[in-house]
Each structure stands twice: as structure tokens, then as C-alpha cells.
Amino acid sequence: MSDENENRDMLICRCEEVTLGEILDAIDEGFVTVKDVKRATRAGMGLCQGRSCSRTIARIISERTGKSLEEVLPKSYRYPVRPEKMGAALSREGEDESNN
Amino acid sequence: MNRITDHPILGPLEEAEMVDIIVDGQVMQARKGEMIAAALMANGKNTFRKTVKREEPRGIYCGIGRCTDCVMTVNGIPNVRTCVTEVEEGMVIQTQIGSGEWQ
Amino acid sequence: MKRLKRDIVVIGSGPAGLCAAIEAARSGAAVLLVDENAKIGGQLFKQIHKFFGSADHRAGVRGIDIGEQLLRQAEELAVEVWLNCEACGIFDEKTVWMVRDKEHSVAVEAQRIIIATGAVENSINFPGWTLPGVMGAGAAQTMINIHRVLPGHRVLMVGSGNVGVIVSYQLLQAGATVAAIVEAAPNLGGYGVHTAKVRRAGVPFYTSHTVKEARGNGHVERAVLVKLDSQWNQVPGSEFEVEVDTICIATGLTPAVELAFGSGCRPFNSPPLGGLVPVHDRMMKSSIDSIYIAGDVSGVEEASTAMEEGRIAGLSAAHSLGTITDQMFAERLEQLQHNVDALRSGMFGQKRREAKDAIVRSYGVER
Fold first, then answer.
1. pLDDT over 50 (residue C367)
2. Where are the domains of chain A?
3. What value does the mean pLDDT take over residues A14-21?
4. Measuring CA to CA, which of B45, C29, C147, C366 is 20 to 30 A from C357?
5. C133–B46: do the CB atoms touch at under 8 Å?
6. Is residue A60 within 8 angstroms of chain C, CB to CB?
7. Do B64 and C144 touch (CB under 8 A)?
């Protein structure tokens, strides 16, 4: 990790453009799991759904609070786990006999 | 062009059918079946979008459809992952500004 | 909605999933193999280097050639393949919800599910890491070996593990210049053979160094490197610039566990294998009886181990459905486990073997 004070402006969540400073502030306010930080800052709430930044955020929380990665990482995931258009989720390929 | 035409293991680049894509109003040549991101980088375009808040340029990052950083507006649909979407003849591709707009 | 039914659904068609599907089909199960990409094979076809291992593992054969052989086998065995098909969730431990061609939802009821979703590259953060030109080493590898496009001409590689040195060498083969390889640790991380090839090509290695910053106007133009002390702190004043247009990140992989954990598989923390993984037994069964896992999602290793694990998962899943006799199962399982143990030997392998053993032990204890 680069120097914290120098790099507060550095992005951690690429999608929602959340900075290291915002994440550190959230941790200091008591948001100490990846899910909590997400709720507080929107980090991990963007298009990729935290795929790129969850692990980094977990490490930052762990370094700052001394909690283990296991404690801070999410253990459950919401469906869909891939980015989908709502239409695709609702449109069903129900009568596809050829695949039976 | 950034195409690897000759390769010590993979050999010479096979001839491919070419298709025209329209990128920010400009016609570019792409190999049929390749991913949009590959076609753009072959043509020297590395910036695919500008972000919502900071308006920063972004290009490919993970290259396998996970990070969603390479999204562009394709045929009027925003947020298309260009690293896992194949080019098609006449495809209209636009640098996405912010979260893009349905057209 | 009409429900489709299959004996076994395999999610992910990389080395593990492909081998799982083949082994299960060979064992007499009706297999559906799905992959989100337009092409089968996952990351196997960008592995243009020769694999390690014994002759049994086709050591010395390039990943792409192994991939071609596997595709032929899958075809001969009439494995059903759905591409452009994203598995979005698993319900009631049996039903896989998928979206095909980004358009239609399909639910397939499977008696057994094999999750082989692979891994995602880790990132490291430094000011400028979001500039175009900074990318995963895997992204660069896909660009050069699959798409035959150079992502840049002067590359800095961050990380000296196997991925870092192998992709560096492949960038050289593709015609790029690798300006340097930086490694935060005091020692190099990759296999000697791969490291030596890059070194012989004249690429400088900087151990105990990291990237402090990427600079450039709209695109990477240079990287600022900095020395790290024994406490991993940056040494002020030790900065220097390297002119590059591309920075590749090769700092490890994390198992892609969303589907597995979403479906209720119990997690186990295995730092040597990439972090949280679904706990599993030697037969690659997860904590849920109908769900098996294989490959990087079960702990990050190599394509060769992923293939053997895939075969074990496919075999076990098919056997649990009664498609082969106990004796056939036992004989083949022994052979496959022998193969996978052989791949987990030696200085690097031993660590992975111990980490795998810990996962298996945890399965037995808490189940």
C-alpha cells in the first residue's frame, strides 16, 4: 500500500470512483466490513459489483483495524453474480424444446 | 497498426475477413469475430470511456469481462463490455461519456 | 417456464470445467457445459508456453495444444456446450439460473453442479493506476496471444511470479519491449526456468521495489519506481522513472467464488491459495452434496492441477449418480489423485499440497 496521507485522492473503486481517503474515513467512522464500507461509500456498488476492489478494501480495513480478512470479507453474494440487463432476467427462454 | 503479424510460436497472422466498424464517427477496419476492444487497440485507440465523476479516461483493465472498465456505447446501448463483445459489420461504437445514454 | 433437466451442469469451460465435463461424459453422465464467453477454453488458449509436470500431464506440451485435444475429446463425447451463457445464480442447491446471449433467462435443474469459475486477477493501487495502459497481465496476455494485438510497446511488469515472468516472455515474443520487472518481495517469485528466459533476454529485475505512481496525459507515459525497505515501506529519495506506455499487474489471483458462496457453499480461508475458497473434500465435493468445484475457484494453482481436479470432480459427480461402478470409480480416482499429488510436489508444490490438505481436513471436521 502506498503512503496513506499522500494518496488519499487515489481511487480504490474504479467503477464508482471512491477514493482511499473516503474509505479510510468510513472505516474510522466504524464501517469495518467490506459490506459496511460499500453501504457508506458506494465502493463496490458499481457495474462490476466489487469484483475488482473488494479484496483491496478488505485489506485496507484489515490493516487499519487489525481484523482478519475472513472477518471483513463478504461471505454471501447477491444474484445475479454477473452484470445483466433487467430485461434478460425477466425474459425467459421457456419454450426451447430443442434443448430438451 | 498494433497487429502482431508474425509470431515465433503462433506463426503468421492468418488472413481474416474484415468488417467496417464506426468508432466515434470514424470508420475502422476490424477482423471478423474479434472483440471490440482488440479491434480498437489494433487501430491505436486505447481510451474507451470517460468516467462519471472525474471524467477520467479509461481503457481495458481485466480484458476478460470481469471489471467492466472497458464499457462503451455500442449500437446505442451503453455499458457494453467491449473486451467480450465481438465486432459486427457496421457496428456503431462510441466512447462512453459518464454512464452513457440509451439511443 | 419449462424447466430443462440435465444430469450434470458444469459452469466454466476453462481447463478445470472442460476436463470435468469430459470425464463426467466419459463416465456416462449427460453433461451440459456452459461458459459466459463466446469461445470455449477459458484462459487455456492464451497459454502458449509449455506446461510442467510428468509425461502423464503432457508436460512439454503447450497449453493451446492441450486445449485443442480437449476440444476434440469433448466433441467426440458429445458434451453439450452453451457459450455466451452466464450462470447468474444457483437456487435450492440444484437449479442453475443462466442468461443466454444476454437476452433470455433459462433455468436448468441439475442433479449435480460442478462450479469451475476460475479466478480474478488481483490489483494493486498507486496514483495513476486507472490510466489507460495499466492493465492486468492476463489482459495483456489475452490481447497478444488470442487477439494478436499489442497493447503497448514498452511494458513494465509488476510481479515476478509465474504469471509475471511468463507474460513478460510472451510480450517479448509478440514484439514488445519489457522495460523492467518489479517485485515487492526481496526474492523473485517465479519458476527458475521461466525467470531465466526473461533474464537471458536482458530484462532487468528490481526486487524490493514497487510502483509509486503512473504518470501520463490521458495514457501511461512513465512509471515511478521506488525501493522498499525490509518493512515494505517506501524508501524516500529512492524514486526513479521508467519510460513505459503499459504497466501490467501480475500480483496474484483471487478465486471467483460468488456463485459458490451464493449457493451456500461453506467458505474456508486459505491465504496460500488466494483467500476464501469453498471448502471441499478430496473428491472435490463442496459442503453441499450436489455441488462440486474444481480449478482456481477451489484454490489458485496452475492449469495442469486445474485439469486433474476437473477430472476428479467430473468422475466423482458421475459416480455419485451411479453411472459407473464403485470399482471403476476407485481405480480411476486413485490414478487421478496420484497425478494431482505429483503436480503438488517439489519446493513450490509442497506448499500448495499442505494448503489443500488443510482445506480437506476442515471439510471432515465441520461437516
1. no
2. 4-99
3. 96
4. C29
5. yes
6. no
7. no
Burial of C200 (0-12, 13-18, 19+ CB in 10 A): exposed
In B, minimum Cα distance to A10 occurs at: B54
Residue A96 has a pLDDT of: 43
Q: What is the pLDDT of residues B39-82, one digit of tens each?
A: 999 999 999 999 999 999 999 999 988 889 999 999 999 999 99
pLDDT (tens digit per residue) in A53-96: 988 999 999 999 999 888 898 766 777 777 677 777 777 654 44
Q: What pLDDT, on the 0 to 100 scale, is given for residue C56?
A: 56
Whether C132 contacts chain B with CB within 8 A: yes
Q: Using one digit for the tens of pLDDT, what is the confidence trace for C222-239?
A: 999 999 999 999 999 999
If one looks up domain B32-103 in CATH, what number appears? 3.10.20.440
Q: DSSP letters of A27-80?
A: HHTT--SHHHHHHHH-TT-STTTTTTTHHHHHHHHHHHH---HHHHS----PSP
Nearest to A48 among B54, B56, B66 (CB): B66
Distances (CA, A) of C264 to B8, C180, C219, C237, C287: 46, 43, 42, 50, 8
Chain B residues in contact with A46 by the CB 8 A cut-off are: 68
Segments making up each domain of chain B, as ranges? 32-103
Give yes or no for A84 touching C (CB within 8 A): yes
Q: How many other CB atoms sit within 10 Å of the CB of residue B25?
A: 7
Neighboring chain A residues of C126 at a CB cutoff of 8 Å? 2, 7, 10
Q: Closest approach of chain A CAs to the CA of C265, in angstroms? A: 9
How many other β-carbons are positioned within 10 Å of the β-carbon of residue A25? 14
Bond before A80 cis per omega within 30 degrees: yes
* B90 Cβ contact partners less than 8 Å away, ≥ 6 residues apart: B19, B20, B21, B22
How many CB pairs below 8 A link A and C? 109
Q: Compute the average pLDDT of residues B9-20.
A: 94
Reference C293, options C271, C275, C266; nearest CA is C266
